[in-house]
Design the sequence.
């Protein structure tokens, strides 16, 4: 859905992005993380076409953003970290303007205004001037403006900054809803615990280079063994070790295993299987139970975003290697 | 309907304001009737026409510019740039919507002026003056909006200094427009007129041609400036076309061939200064320009090309045939115009180069202010100090043309004096070194492998 090739961005005396290349698949939610000044906002602005790179190209939904920015904007929405609203307009007028400026007809725009207001719990505020709204409500209006034309890609720069816990929680719910609708999201934030709730991928940037990019459901770093490409790793917690491990795991790849919590006899196993094969997941559990396994837990293995981010900070910066390894 | 136009209308034409404007105008008309008992219609006629000019040109220009500045101040510019509206749609939405309240008042005054003109038997003249005023004001809006867009740095909000510059500008416009509108009436009434490219035209026709051409050029400039701000890739063909058309328009008023060439060159030199002073994000633009040239990305090279070198090259292109025509080389006598014109162009290049050096600094100080200071030192202070020694042209080469001591001392000296040419060459060489140094300073150290300016 998003393709970035050899992106170089210079500011006077400083290179903000150093030949960044990446691909983001449709329907994913990518957490864009990195320290301050790493190049997160610059990358987002280049993807939107608001910033002109020194060299390189970006494509969104197959459209070259540098060559046809206005056409590309029809399939993307963007929330800037320092966004503004038209203070004298009402919420409805703001949303209506955003919809029509994205090429929707007046009737279609009006219908979308009501749909988005309902989705963002803003229906009661439609007639209010935006200057009278709270910070969380303003944030929702700004997101509403970004999604009013039902873009395929939504790029959000620090969407949760300055919000109270309740507003942040509702934001997480909203992002999950948008993903369920098929939207591709890229969310830049410093609040990793919240990103962890709804992000499926991590894109870590440091000093203008990608340090980590891939799905969060891989067990990278668990015993030094990671998931293979196109492989799903399941995490299994057992009350006691398997009596016949070869038979119980026949047909599956044992990725890693280790003892459970200290003082308990439990064991944790990571088992690899073909991704998107639901039958294999069910069959593995049945096979384990049939061989006497005392299953305490069975779930998709997932490294927390915090862990992945820490690993990316320690990893050497080699964008080509990362790109080749994680995006075959 | 254009959503930007509709949004501007909803901001400008609130019900209270719609009622307020005719109420104030009506009170002004009553005042005229009360004060001037003998010929109130004559004064109402003149007053209405002046108000059309003031509202359209002054208030209208201010609100048209606000339609751009407010986007920066309210941080909504990114949202507009992210919309799917094309540059032309966005441009006319702001052009007509931003000053819509001023146009509303101007149209009310137009109606009053037409009624009075009809009553006084001066309908034709009134229509002509009003058309000229409205077209001229529209052209002014376009030019000012295009200039603002070209000079706009999206990362910097409109500062109070910008507002003060606007206030001064509007004050000057106020003076200019009122005298123009009042004077236009008498001009149109006379037998005046002139030759334009050999065609003898009446003053009314001439003014109409100029106003219409200005509007067309203004619209072209506004469209291109908006394209640039909306990240639509643009090459500077429209700027070159606009420069050429503007020159053809004005040069047509000059009778002789030599005068035409010189006027064209001087106009282009002025436009070069204007474009250089307006340019924003200078460092990024020049860095991208040199990078794309170095990597053979010629499309990007032209897209990143600043505008002032285009105008300077065009001025040079105008000079070259004239130079050949006059058969004037730097070693012939000083009565020839060629060397002087050539020196003027080098002077423009030097000044723009100084401005560029200061623009490439990582400093918050105004590059324009620093440039003016350096030019003042080079062109006034140092020549004054060394005038008695005959070294003034070394610092300000154009003084070579006015120093009689030099021509008497050097019988076979070049027209401006060898000192002037040497001085200009030294200054350009120093400038070139300074530019390379500044370009090295803005090039990231990490770009060592692929960049000629990397340290």
Sequence:
């Amino acid at each position: 859905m998003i393709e970035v090739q050899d992106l170089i961005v210079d500011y006077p005396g400083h290179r903000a992005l150093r030949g960044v290349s990446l691909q983001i698949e449709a329907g994913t939610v990518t957490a864009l993380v990195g320290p301050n000044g790493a190049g997160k906002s610059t990358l987002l602005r280049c993807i939107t076409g608001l910033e002109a790179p020194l060299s390189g190209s970006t494509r969104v939904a197959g459209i070259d953003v540098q060559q046809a920015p206005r056409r590309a904007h029809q399939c993307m929405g963007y929330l800037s970290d320092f966004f503004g609203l038209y203070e004298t307009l009402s919420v409805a007028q703001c949303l209506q303007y955003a919809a029509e400026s994205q090429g929707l007809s007046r009737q279609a725009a009006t219908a979308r205004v009501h749909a988005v207001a309902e989705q963002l719990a803003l229906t009661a505020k439609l007639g209010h001037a935006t200057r009278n709204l709270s910070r969380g409500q303003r944030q929702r209006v700004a997101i509403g403006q970004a999604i009013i034309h039902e873009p395929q890609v939504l790029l959000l720069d620090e969407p949760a900054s300055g919000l109270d816990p309740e507003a942040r929680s509702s934001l997480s719910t909203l992002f999950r809803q948008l993903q369920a609708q098929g939207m591709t999201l890229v969310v830049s934030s410093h609040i990793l615990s919240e990103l962890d709730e709804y992000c499926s991928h991590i894109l870590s940037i440091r000093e203008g280079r990608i340090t980590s990019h891939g799905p969060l459901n891989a067990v990278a770093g668990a015993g030094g063994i990671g998931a293979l490409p196109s492989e799903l790793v399941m995490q299994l917690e057992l009350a006691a070790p398997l009596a016949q491990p070869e038979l119980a795991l026949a047909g599956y790849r044992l990725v890693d295993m280790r003892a459970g919590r200290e003082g308990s006899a439990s064991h944790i196993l990571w088992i690899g299987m073909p991704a998107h094969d639901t039958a294999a997941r069910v069959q593995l559990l049945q096979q384990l139970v049939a061989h006497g396994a005392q299953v305490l837990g069975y779930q998709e293995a997932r490294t927390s975003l915090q862990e992945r981010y820490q690993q990316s900070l320690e990893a050497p910066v080699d964008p080509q290697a990362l790109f080749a390894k994680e995006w075959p | 309907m254009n959503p930007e136009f509709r949004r501007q209308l909803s901001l400008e034409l609130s019900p209270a304001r719609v009622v307020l404007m005719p109420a104030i105008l009506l009170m002004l008309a009553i005042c005229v009737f009360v004060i001037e008992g003998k010929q109130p219609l004559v004064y109402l006629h003149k007053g209405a026409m002046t108000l059309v000019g003031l509202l359209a040109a002054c208030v209208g220009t201010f609100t048209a510019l606000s339609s751009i500045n407010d986007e920066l101040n309210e941080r909504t510019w990114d949202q507009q740039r992210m919309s799917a509206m094309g540059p032309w749609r966005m441009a006319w939405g702001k052009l007509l919507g931003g000053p819509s309240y001023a146009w509303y008042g101007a149209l009310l005054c137009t109606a009053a002026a037409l009624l009075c003109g009809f009553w006084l038997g001066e309908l034709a003249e009134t229509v002509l003056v009003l058309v000229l005023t409205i077209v001229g004001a529209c052209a002014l809006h376009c030019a000012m909006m295009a200039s603002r867009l070209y000079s706009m740095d999206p990362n910097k909000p409109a500062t109070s200094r910008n507002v003060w510059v606007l206030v001064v500008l509007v004050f000057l416009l106020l003076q200019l427009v009122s005298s123009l509108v009042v004077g236009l009436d008498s001009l149109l009434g006379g037998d005046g007129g002139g030759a334009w490219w050999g065609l003898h035209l009446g003053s009314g026709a001439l003014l109409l041609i100029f106003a219409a051409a200005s509007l067309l050029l203004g619209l072209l400039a506004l469209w291109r400036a908006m394209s640039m701000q909306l990240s639509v890739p643009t090459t500077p063909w429209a700027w070159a076309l606009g420069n050429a058309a503007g020159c053809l328009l004005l040069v047509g008023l000059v009778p002789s061939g030599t005068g035409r060439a010189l006027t064209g060159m001087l106009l282009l030199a002025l436009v070069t200064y204007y474009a250089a002073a307006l340019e924003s994000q200078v460092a990024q633009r020049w860095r991208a320009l040199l990078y794309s040239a170095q990597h053979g990305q010629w499309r990007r090279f032209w897209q990143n090309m600043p505008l002032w070198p285009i105008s300077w090259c065009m001025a040079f292109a105008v000079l070259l045939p004239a130079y050949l025509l006059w058969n004037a080389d730097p070693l012939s006598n000083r009565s020839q115009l060629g060397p002087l014109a050539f020196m003027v162009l080098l002077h423009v290049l030097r000044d723009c180069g100084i401005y560029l050096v200061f623009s490439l600094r990582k400093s918050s100080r105004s590059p324009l202010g620093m440039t003016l200071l350096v030019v003042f030192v080079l062109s006034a202070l140092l020549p004054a100090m060394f005038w008695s020694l005959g070294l003034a042209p070394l610092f300000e080469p154009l003084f070579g043309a006015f120093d009689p001591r030099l021509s008497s001392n050097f019988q076979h000296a070049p027209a401006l004096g060898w000192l002037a040419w040497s001085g200009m060459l030294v200054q350009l060489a120093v400038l070139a070194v300074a530019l390379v140094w500044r370009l090295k300073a803005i090039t990231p150290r990490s770009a060592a492998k692929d960049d000629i300016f990397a340290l």
